[in-house]
Every structure is written in structure tokens, then in C-alpha cells.
TrEMBL record:
Belongs to the complex I NdhN subunit family. The lineage of its organism: Bacteria, Bacillati, Cyanobacteriota, Cyanophyceae, Leptolyngbyales. GO terms for molecular function: oxidoreductase activity, acting on NAD(P)H, quinone or similar compound as acceptor; quinone binding. It catalyses: a plastoquinone + NADPH + (n+1) H(+)(in) = a plastoquinol + NADP(+) + n H(+)(out); a plastoquinone + NADH + (n+1) H(+)(in) = a plastoquinol + NAD(+) + n H(+)(out). HAMAP family: NDH1_NDH1N (MF_01353). PANTHER family: NAD(P)H-QUINONE OXIDOREDUCTASE SUBUNIT N, CHLOROPLASTIC. GO terms for cellular component: plasma membrane-derived thylakoid membrane. It is found in: Cellular thylakoid membrane. It is a peripheral membrane protein. This is NAD(P)H-quinone oxidoreductase subunit N. Its EC number is 7.1.1.-. The keyword Calcium does not apply. It comes from Romeriopsis navalis LEGE 11480.
Length: 158
């Protein structure tokens, strides 16, 4: 039987040990915020993003990459492409890690709707957590009747 109030100690230990974990939470929500708050209290900075529309994970998370704003049916009058200019955006995780306070243990990247990611993308996230020791990744993979987690490696293999 699970207690209603948990300290989150085992969850935090598993995240620190494995680097990347898959989370299955009740669909009514609330549990994610509690565990994220406990991770912040343990000295981590938090960043929450959605997996939908990420595109190339490696470019979006760790490299400077180009984006085009929606053109909304209008053509540009310059000699550039008709769909608009390319704007270069800094990497979201790389920038957060570079600007991390020395008082912080690391960065928690909490990804919601992780069930849309392919196995290759999940493997990349697993390897990214291994290669960058200050980065811990939590991916919400689906619903469950109670809050549970497992190492991302086990979730990929299933």
C-alpha cells in the first residue's frame, strides 16, 4: 500500500542513479508537481517541456539551431525564401546548463507526453543523461493508477 504523503527520497535516488527515468502517473495530475518540487528542494533546477513538436532533439536541446516563424500566408518581399527568414535559437538545455548556479546540483529536464517519442529519440535522451552528469531526465510515458517510475532503459526495452 502506498502512503498518501511521500518524501520522494527513493524517486530522487533513482533519478540520480540512473540519470533518465520513465514516469507513469495518474491522469488527473498533481503527482508530477509534488515530485518536481521535491527535486527543487534537493538542489536541482527544473525545466519542463512537451515532447510534441520538438523535432530534432539533439539540435533543439544541445545545439544552436535555426527556426522559421509561421508565415501566416504572407510572402516576404526580400530576396530570401518566400517562407521567411531563419532565426537562430540557442540550445535550451545547453544554455540552462551553462548558466546553472554553482549552488545547484544539476538540471532536471521534465518531458511531458513522452509517449510520442520514438525509441531512437528515447535512446538519445538516455545517452545524453549519461554523457552530461549534471543533467537528469524524467519522461512522462503514460498513465497509471498510481505514480510509478522505472529506468528509461527498461521502458525502451519493453
Amino acid at each position: 500500500m502506498f502512503s498518501l504523503i511521500t518524501t520522494g527520497g527513493k524517486f530522487i535516488k533513482d533519478v540520480e542513479t540512473h540519470g533518465a527515468v520513465a514516469v507513469y502517473a495518474p491522469l488527473e495530475g498533481g503527482y508530477e508537481g509534488r515530485y518536481l518540487r521535491r527535486m527543487r528542494a534537493k538542489g536541482y533546477e527544473a525545466l519542463s517541456i512537451s515532447a510534441r513538436g520538438l523535432g530534432d532533439l539533439q539540435a533543439y536541446l544541445m545545439d544552436v539551431h535555426g527556426v522559421r516563424p509561421p508565415h501566416l500566408g504572407k510572402k516576404s518581399k526580400s530576396s530570401d525564401a518566400c517562407v521567411g527568414s531563419v532565426y537562430y535559437v540557442p540550445p535550451i538545455v545547453g544554455t540552462q546548463l551553462d548558466n546553472l548556479s554553482p549552488r545547484r546540483k544539476g538540471l532536471i529536464l521534465w518531458i511531458v507526453e513522452g509517449f510520442v517519442l520514438t525509441n531512437e529519440e528515447l535512446n538519445y535522451l538516455k545517452d545524453l543523461a549519461k554523457s552530461e552528469p549534471r543533467l537528469k531526465i524524467v519522461i512522462e510515458m503514460g498513465g497509471e493508477r498510481y505514480f510509478r517510475w522505472q529506468p528509461l532503459v527498461q521502458s525502451i526495452a519493453a
